[in-house]
Design goal:
By secondary structure, the chain is an alpha/beta fold. Helix content is about 30%, strand content about 15%. The C terminus is likely disordered.
Length: about 325
């Protein structure tokens, strides 16, 4: 089983003390986002939790705990979103130079193959032109050179919540998508970073951008040092998404970054209300379980055959293949 931390809110940035309390107590409770009276309890045990998959705009708060997480036997994979927007779009995201420094520190502690840069979402307007994106992407790629080998890009999707919170935003034209993809691909090659998309309807492989999968079988095998023993299905959260299923432990309307394009926040007042209800000692991210809420143990099964290496190393069969290839060369 893969645990996603989180697509609903930024847990590393704002809720790291709570998360580490959950790790130390060995379980976490998660409300069903559509049926709040239903609560699932997940064991935080490396025997069934194959990988902790993080998604954040600010990894700095969790850096001091990387060693503890690894010592407890957890495999770790990080998506760090770094975009060029200012506080008019991302009001509470730290300065991007600080985030990139944190990214480099994270890479040193986990390995560059376990850290993925997300340049997401891309939109274009009078302030954030295509030329602006190219300049910023080049600077970021040069700064992150050696700290990652992978960058996921995506173009803005006009979800209903996004349009509500970000009036006037427009889809990026197919022509501009292809143009930016070609330039980003060339920049990525110069910095040793493969550019991929995930869940994009437009095929950009002809522009040098691979049609990737954020949470793929190969990524999990590489990160865990194990072998996925069967096809576990796909996420199906978004059209065109082929990611492996991951269980999200976050809550909607709880991310104080308050990015205008965010699909996970409905409105600022609800975010503030929920954030104020957060208790680092609670099994739930927001508030406490009510008397009428039913807590049930989630079904958890490992996706992996027995690990043959330490997390973050290649599985034995892949290591042998690489050794044989080196001998042939």
């Amino acid at each position: 089983m893969l645990l996603f931390i989180s697509g609903r809110t930024d847990i590393p940035a704002f809720y790291t003390p709570w998360f580490m309390n959950r790790i130390r107590e060995g379980f976490v409770d998660v409300r069903n986002p559509y049926y709040g009276e239903q609560v699932s309890r997940y064991r935080l045990d490396p025997e069934v939790t194959d990988c902790l998959v993080f998604c954040t705009k600010n990894p700095a708060p969790i850096l001091p705990y990387i060693s503890e997480l690894k010592d407890r036997g957890f495999a770790l994979y990080f998506f760090v979103t770094i975009t060029p927007y200012g506080t008019d779009i991302e009001p509470n995201v730290p300065d991007k130079s600080a985030v990139m420094q944190s990214f480099r520190e994270l890479s040193e502690r986990t390995g560059s193959r376990n850290c993925c840069w997300r340049y997401d979402p891309v939109f274009i307007d009078e302030t954030y032109s295509a030329a602006f994106h190219i300049r910023q992407f080049r600077q970021m790629a040069e700064t992150l050179h050696g700290a990652t080998d992978r960058c996921i890009i995506s173009f803005i999707d006009l979800y209903q919540k996004t349009v509500k919170n970000f009036p006037g935003v427009k889809e990026v034209s197919e022509q501009d998508q292809r143009f930016l993809a070609q330039v980003f691909s060339r920049i990525g090659m110069e910095s040793g970073i493969t550019i991929e998309t995930c869940a994009e309807k437009l095929d950009l492989t002809g522009c040098g951008v691979a049609k990737g999968i954020c949470i793929s079988r190969s990524i999990i095998e590489q990160t865990t040092g194990g072998h996925v023993i069967k096809k576990p299905g796909v996420q199906h959260l978004r059209k065109h998404c082929m990611c492996l299923p991951a269980h999200d432990i976050g809550s909607y309307n709880s991310c104080p970054h308050l990015c205008k394009y965010c699909y996970a926040n409905y409105n600022e007042e609800l975010v503030k209300k929920n954030h104020a209800m957060h208790d680092p000692s609670s099994p739930l991210l927001i508030g406490h379980a009510a008397a009428d809420q039913h807590i049930h143990d989630a079904e958890q099964k490992s996706l992996l055959a027995e690990r043959r290496t330490e997390p973050g190393q290649l599985p034995l069969f892949a290591d042998l293949m690489q050794t044989g290839q080196a001998e042939r060369n």
